[in-house]
């Protein structure tokens, strides 16, 4: 075949043009022999207005069973011509070996008709082929008894129409083995190298690659092994893995078998089905196995193997549409019909629902239907009869399944694959009329209450007569619609798995979805972390001290880590502990046999590095108590003890941030006991001494090993303790720059965001428009810009044409205030968020390009496409979990300066708990409208005390914007809907009542969430999401929370995943809720299961209640006359939430809890309490109309020599007074020796 010329005229005249009446035209090319095709070119018909603008390309070895050729990204449509003379050249992303090519036009000239001239480019292809009939094999026998290798390269190509079969097997007496086999249409490799541990066959684990490999087409396999490192490649998919065990060599005895295992009874071998199909170009470490067999070499034994691939191919057809595809076939002769009928066929699909077969019965309108429902088969006939699911396994797994349906002998029998038949006995024989319908039916033939079948069928047999599908295609038999013949056009959309971070891929015929349960990530492709990036970020949203999962690299490859966030100090500290918590005593160690302690942190080295590098400062305390145990040799300065850093490097300094200085902190601070030494312990005294140091050089933290080598002398001893790693600050949160010139921009390397990208940042400006960032490719691009004062746009092109997602604000965004932007693109969808405005989503085409190819630099604050640059400030720019150092890049760029002027541009938290800082002409103000807190800086908790009949109901004006109201009839739609719905619920409460209703959220469709305390005091979260199902209940913590103490609850749902935090426990459960109607606190009435709890209401204190961006308690206080707020019963502002820190502090000190809560419960009062040390021992806040009653509430609550002192303040909401009572020491009667 000649080499291509891009603008060569394929033929001076003529061309192919089908008749106008041809319903399914195609052009087929016979290359006369198998060729390796690398490219195709097309032209329109000569001197005409006829051409093809888009086409499909199919290939086949025999001209019967065809497979669609797909380019990169799985694109099945090739770009053709725009006129009749220009040549459209398409180079194949992967060459294909084939004899036949078929061009199927999809779009053509709008002003003419189909016209086509084609040219095919490539080269001749030769191969050595062997045919295996399922009972044959090739044996390659070694010259010696066994063969041991540390490097192997095995390559072959195969094709098969069976999903099972052994391709390669070898084993050794010491336990080594290698097996390559087809299993369920995938390729599985079992490999074990030299290992002393016994491994039984039941524990053998396979590495699996590929899918749908039983499609009767050629697939290439390469196994490359060097020691333990293995690459397994099937077609274009490569999996790299490392074998287990201690050995590096593979030892195989006597022989390798190909195509099967000739001796199934041999000990230790797999009892598997032999391969049935063809293998070509089989090489083992450079040896052509098939060539040796063809030449009858003595080291090869070929049993029943032929050297040509001539076995027949099975012809299938594809049902393309889930709504309109069908095939009708006539019944057999009437005599056979009087005795019933039998049908048999094979099918494969990814869909869980669809009509497989239907037949009309007499009398009308009865019918018999064979359906897929929820991935199982069932059969219905008449009006009331239904045979339930007959299959013990799913049938939407992409494999071929065989169905037999027999209505003869007064019974209906349904058999699936090799399972036992399901039978229904009949009183009389079924009588059918009309045609048989496969996959669906036309509107005139029957009503289609269910989805039509979408998938492949083959080997259709009616009453023992095989159906020739070619006759159906030619119109000689039956009728059809939306079918594709001679091919099973199934594809695995989960190969490769485009779900990130371990998300599980689910697919239907047209699309795929990701199950992110348990991954810690959310979104359509599990791209977005559900956790904050740092403790500082948790502090900003108002979280108290506690254990939190943080994700330092956001949507990057690293997972989350569990840390303790200390919010009580001015700085927010992140604490990472290790396995050695207490002091360690060491004796008898020397340099020859040192004591070595390994410190294990609950995070990988990469996760620790990400956390440390993102922090402003980190340190770790080391305490070394010694008696005749030195840290350094005083003669030559050689270290006797040392520690290893995060990279395993030896470190000999014991304090400060100056590495390489062999000194302790006392030397740096000039306060050592003996100033002749650099460490207290180096004085080598027989009395105890201590060297304490703070290690603060970030690049060396944390300490990974501790090595002690000088405790082997008489009376020599050491006790050391390594503190936890402590870090503070988040360097990314206020990394800001200012742009003063439209022509200026910051330049960074090209974005590597082929499959997914998330971009987030803050901006403030007074300009009307400007580009925030842009990265261009040859034709692809990605851009985020302020396109007008109130509109932010996110635009990109991945090869399907430009896409624009826009968010419009009702207020101008160029108001010199900070605004938040987050844009995300993945293979499923694109989204854009601006501040708290509703998300905007745009679905990606199911069969379009999805890889973003960029080749230029990333411009921030400017553009390479001559668009208007940005004027203003940008901070905290993060792309795919990587925070860009804008300030550092600004130091070398003209027109850009580090930092941003204004009160709200510093790293200090001026506004707390998600409050927004607003610039003023002479200062700043905090906008607390989106926070559950109040006060000048959004730090004052908004709390209320509820009586048994009290409640607050907040009604939304319209369905809450983050809750998606989408159809859930189809599984794909349901998954799409669930991936975009989200809630964020947070509140604190104190109560001694159980059961109790805490919070409920309901929708117009009677869906709801209810958060309650059960009768045992445990927290329960109820979800009622589907009307045909009973509610789901999730209990994240089983302990009694009705204990009179303050508890903080946070519930976050992203897509299908529900994450609940109660104190320090993080738990998850999947589910979904849509279209919010109203939210209630304290009382509501839903299902019978929780009706009794709802009728009890709530008695206690609720504070800091937030549902997404709505704070109902604040709304009740500030908008009492609003129609959106309904208040029932007595309700009074309280201060229960403000006691949280006091209670936590008290519990940490180990003080005994008072019994105030029990007294309050007994008298049905609303009480919050805490205990303190010092003068004030007990603080009680209560609501009462009677001052004297307060003393009966708390009899004898003050210790001896103390008295109860109360102050009151009138409450303006109800007729009641606020009493704050303290037990105060009677100082006149207290002696100096008495305890506080």
Automatic annotation (TrEMBL):
Disulfide cysteine pairs (residue numbers): 873-900
Key words, A-Z: Disulfide bond, EGF-like domain, Membrane, Repeat, Signal, Transmembrane, Transmembrane helix
A GO cellular-component term linked to this record: membrane
Residue ranges occupied by any Fibrinogen C-terminal domain in the UniProt entry: 526-582
Residue ranges annotated for the F5/8 type C domain, each copy included: 1-123
Highest taxon of the lineage: Eukaryota
Membrane topology of this protein: Single-pass type I membrane protein
Alphabetical list of InterPro entries matching this protein: ConA-like_dom_sf, EGF, FA58C, Fibrinogen-like_C, Fibrinogen_a/b/g_C_dom, Galactose-bd-like_sf, Laminin_G, Neurexin-related_CASP
Subcellular location: Membrane
Laminin G domain ranges (all copies): 129-309, 316-488, 735-900, 959-1136
Membrane-spanning parts: none
CDD domains recorded: EGF_CA, FA58C, LamG
PANTHER family listed in its UniProt record: CONTACTIN-ASSOCIATED PROTEIN-LIKE 5 ISOFORM X1, PIKACHURIN-LIKE PROTEIN
Protein family: Belongs to the neurexin family.
Name used for this protein in its record: Contactin associated protein-like 5a
Organism listed in the record: Amphilophus citrinellus
